Amino acid sequence: MKRAASSVVGINHIGLSVSNLDASLAFYTRGTGAGIARSKRKINQNAERAGGLNSTVRAREVLTFPNGYLEVTEYEGAGHDTVQLPVKGPGLTHVCYQSPSTDDIYGRLVEQGATSVSRGSEPVHLLGQGVYYAYARDHDGVMFETEHLNRAPFEGPIWFSHVAIVSPDLDRLIAFYGLLLDAKPDRRTNSASGPTFDAVADYDDVSIRAAWFDIGNMILEMWEFTNPKTPQPKGITPFDGIGYNKVAFEVTDIQGEYARLSAAGVTFLSEPVLGDECVEVYLRDPDGNLISLIQPTAESPHSVTRLKQKTW
Predict the structure, then answer these.
(1) Within-domain flag for 104
(2) 3-state SS, one letter per residue, for the chain
(3) Which tens digits make up the pLDDT trace of 53-98?
């Protein structure tokens, strides 16, 4: 994918706000096989404050997958007035864990207490191409997707496949992330429907528009439900609201990105802020979803350039 202007090299991490850190770590490590980062990530709390964080971080750990990170945080007072995002969104609705069909990630997560969203007791053979899909929720009601692949293109039992954003205006979102990435979607469709889609999403007569940006180590997936229709966002995504609270894009030139995107009319929540391990700056997409640009220092062990990349 051509990127002349953008210096984005991947999705550094997805942020997940939880009600109980220990319970979430147990759920995801036992269910997916993810590890906990041995070298502590030095979080740029100054950038978080500049980006609007008002809560206190009670505890935080980083789960590591072969190709990405899930930053799991418990904030003071988290867990109150939790609202589950529906499949039709809007917002950062889910992340996806892929595994070979012989390694039943979905079953292991259900054993850890996950509750199914998709219809039936087993993942759905959506398109007849050897991939079986299912949505489920963890103990906080946060949704995730599993995909079992008959012919997995990666080595190992797990792959951190994608993060999904559901929007009432797919074209507007594509334009924004196209600017951010200096790229067009690698794939898109204006019509996806059928009985198997109904089974996965648990809606009757579901109809979806979608687009995918392939970003090196992970995929950024976007949906717009046309039936049932994705509603308008009711507000901005807070740091401490239970669920996925941000997507951090790793860049090699954060000052250049800040200048380029500012000149294009993008509003940042602060200037780039230097921390112990990275420079980071926060912004929001047109739907109010929180994202950041992050440039790790040369000494940081947490760059996506040190992780496996998607080669298919």
Answers:
(1) yes
(2) CCCCCCCEEEEEEEEEEECCHHHHHHHHHHHHCCEECCCCCCCCHHHHHHCCCCCCEEEEEEEEECCEEEEEEEECCCCCCCCCCCCCCCEEEEEEEEEECCCCHHHHHHHCCCEECCCCCCCEECCCCCEEEEEEECCCCCEEEEEEECCCCCCCCCEEEEEEEECCCHHHHHHHHHHHHCCCCCEEEEEEECHHHHHHHCCCCCEEEEEEEEECCEEEEEEEEEECECCCCCCCCCCCCCEEEEEEEEECCHHHHHHHHHHCCCCECCCCEECCCEEEEEEECCCCCEEEEEEECCCCCCCHHHCCCCCC
(3) 999 999 999 999 999 999 999 999 766 566 799 999 999 999 999 9
Residue 202 lies in a domain: yes
Amino acid at residue number 62: V
Q: What is the CA radius of gyration of the chain?
A: 18
Task: Report the CATH number at residue 218.
Answer: 3.10.180.10
Q: Burial code of 199-232, b = ≥16 C-beta within 10 A, e = fewer?
A: bbbebeebbbbbbbbbbbbbbbbbbbbbeeebee
Q: What is the pLDDT of residue 53?
A: 93
The total of structural domains in the chain comes to 1
Its pTM stands at 0.96
In-domain check, residue 1: no
**Residue 311 falls within a domain, yes or no?**
no
Range of the domain at 55: 8-306
Q: How far apart are CA 47 and CA 121, in angstroms?
A: 43
Q: How far apart are CA 217 and CA 194, in angstroms?
A: 30
